[in-house]
Structures are given as C-alpha cells and as structure tokens.
Amino acid sequence: MEEKKILLSERELPTEWYNVLPDLPEQLPPPINPATGEPIKPEDLLPVFPISLIKQEISQNRWIPIPDEVLEVYKLWRPTPLVRAYELEKYLNTPARIYYKNESVSPTGSHKPNTAVAQAYFNKIEGVKRLTTETGAGQWGSALAFACNIFGLKCRVYMVKVSYYQKPFRKSLMHIWGAEVFPSPTNLTNAGRKILAEDPDSPGSLGIAISEAIEDAVTNEDTKYSLGSVLNHVLLHQTIIGLETKKQLELINEKPDILIGCVGGGSNFGGFILPFVPEKLKGKSEVKFLAVEPTACPTLTKGLYLYDFGDTVGLTPLLKMYTLGHNFVPPKIHAGGLRYHGDAPILCYLVYKNLVEAVAYTQKAVFEAAIIFAKTEGILPAPETAHAIKAVIDEAIKCKETKEEKCIVFNFSGHGYFDINAYDQYLESKLEDVDYADEMIKKTLEEIKKLPGNV
C-alpha cells in the first residue's frame, strides 16, 4: 500500500524562516509616505509595529532564526502533513499526481497562526500589552486571539461586518481565547464613524477594518497593530509552509510542476511558493506558480500595478501592488478572506515579472469544487481554500486531456467547518454568483492614479 501522508518529525521542523528579498533580481519599489512622496523611513512605522518586526520587514538576510519560544508553540501542530489526494485523482481519472499541504490542522483551522504566534511573541518581548487587528472571514482574527492568549496580550479584532454575521462561530472562537470582536465599520473610531456617515448600511471591507485597527493602535500607547497578510514579515513567517513542503517532496523524490494557492492578501500562497522561487529565478526549475482569486474581487487579474493605500481611509503608507483602488468595496461573497483590494507587494512584483500566473473563478464554481473535494478526500475546505481546489481540478483535467503525468501541489490553507451556512446555501441553490463591478473598478482606479508614485 502506498503512503498517503508524508510526515516530518518535530526534529525536522525548520528553525529559520526564508526571506526572498535578497534573492530577487532587484529591490521592491519602496513604501511611500503619502504626505511627503518620499520612501518611508523605518522609524516612521514605530507607532504601529515593534522594532523587531520592522527589522524583519526590511531585512536583507536570507535566513531569519525562529525563536525557541515560537518553535515550541509551533509544535502544537507543526510540521503539518503533505497528503497525496488519491481519491480526488481517481474521481478525476487524471494521470496527474495531486498533493496538498494540510494547514487546517492548526488550533484555529488555518495557516494564520504561523505568523500570529510570531507577531504576538515579538510584541510581547518589547513590552506591548495589547494588539489590534482586522479580520475578514475570521481566520486571522481567531489566530491572533489564540496567539495573544498564549503570550498574555489583550486583543481587539475589527471584523468585516458582512463576515461578522455570516460566520458567527469564528467570532465565538475569538471570544473563547479572550479577544474583543466588533463588526466593522464601528462607531469606536473616527474612520468607522466616517464610513457609517457616508453609508449607514456599509457591509464593511478589509480596507475599512484595517483603518479602524490602525487608528486604535496609534491612539493608545500600550497598543500595536498586527496584520495577517500583505507585508513582507508576514510572508516571511509563512515560509515555514513552503520549507516543510520542499523537505516532504524531497523525501519521496517528487519535483512539483505546479504550485497552487488561493490569494486574498497573499500570505498563504506567498509562504507556500517563496522557498521555491530561487530555483526558478536561476533557471533550474520550470515550476508554474498559480495564484487563484475570486472574480468578485479580481485584484491580480483585473487590477493595476500602482501605488495605493493598504486601507480605505488612508492611514497606511502607499504600497506598490496590484490594486482595485482602496475605496473598492467587493460583493458579499462567502470567501471573506479574499475580499481585499490589494495584494502583498512581494507577490505583486512576481506577478508583474511574469513569474506568477493568476486566475479568477466565480463563487458557484468554487463551491462545486469544494463539494467534490469533500466527497473524495473527506475534508470540507474553507471557501477561500476551495478557490485553489477549483484550479487544481482544472489543471488535473488538462493533464487528462494531454496525458501528462504532472505533479500538482496546493496549499490547503484552511477547513470550512465554520462555513456550513454557506454550504447549506449552495446545496439549496440559494448562493448567488456575484461578479465584480466593472464600473466601480474603473472609478476607484481613477481615484488613485494621482497618488504619489503613480504620476
């Protein structure tokens, strides 16, 4: 009988995170201070982040040691299994070999604790007492609540309003770990009050929730802000996924032909593929990196590579990224973690250089793929993760048509057991196929073209 799970021992747990910045052919476009139009200085970020994370954000060291205290917490669920999807292969009748890296085995059910634990630790050792953050579907909020509980920090989460009501059990999980959770936009911040004055029925967005969380952090001396995606140090912490995956594939003498992941802000996909990037840059690998997003928020497939704010109100530095415009409010799809107007600058640079490909899918097609996976492999995927699964199925079918025995590996970024309501709607044919608003994208993109860095 062939082995289904490729496992590493705790002794084989990576002890360093991989930093891709020194291996890129050129430096990333720097974050810009919107007030001066000049590159932002590291010290400008001190009201928001602890110095240790700022240093990681700009570091040119290829390897960053993982503190022992963080490794000990990681051992609660890491290393995670790499699993051969034999039943899915049989169902699709494909010659492709399909593997998935199962990040759903973490305490919160997703990849998010990989950076939440690290960020909580570095804030704790610098004397921070309280963290604020935003969350979409709630995976990041529950991960930070978990991490803050471990290191004795207070935690406040601004949860996108539509997801707050769509996914109440994520909110319950955050409460169990001691976090405060509020539906964003709220009346607790100037940013929230401004949005509600303009649109009392605003469904919220990650951009709005980020504005609220940052404002909360910079107006309280004992508080810092924590981000679950987009920034360099977040993708750095997530590279433990790709590093483990490389080891596991080497154990079975496999080389991936296609690496696939869903993309909202880019953390799970970035962490998954970045350890494989150097070999591709050197021409030693022809692996295809495939980023998957929803058509309702098509950042990489419909956005422009421009400088934009990371939040809606304009409290963040300007980042060079593919964006739909910081005022873009996506439709109310159930993949709340993918409803972000921008993407990680590292990932966007790789897309711009044609090193990463992107594809977008509609909501119903994604849920259909999720049901196929649940029926064959037995695990219910999060709606976000289901986007990756849809791409896997499409690539496997292509292999069937061409008779190519490709190795397809994807990141199973989280389970969907808190998304049962969405699955019920799909099974009862009540789930709508909402698409992006083309006119809204044109409008929001026009608004940012005159920002510093774009003129």
Automatic annotation (TrEMBL):
A GO molecular function held by the record: pyridoxal phosphate binding
EC numbers, comma separated = 4.2.1.20
- Keywords associated with the record: Amino-acid biosynthesis, Aromatic amino acid biosynthesis, Lyase, Pyridoxal phosphate, Tryptophan biosynthesis
- Tell me the cofactors it needs: pyridoxal 5'-phosphate
Tell me the NCBIfam families matching this sequence.
PRK12391.1, trpB_rel
Protein role: The beta subunit is responsible for the synthesis of L-tryptophan from indole and L-serine.
Protein name (Swiss-Prot/TrEMBL) = Tryptophan synthase beta chain
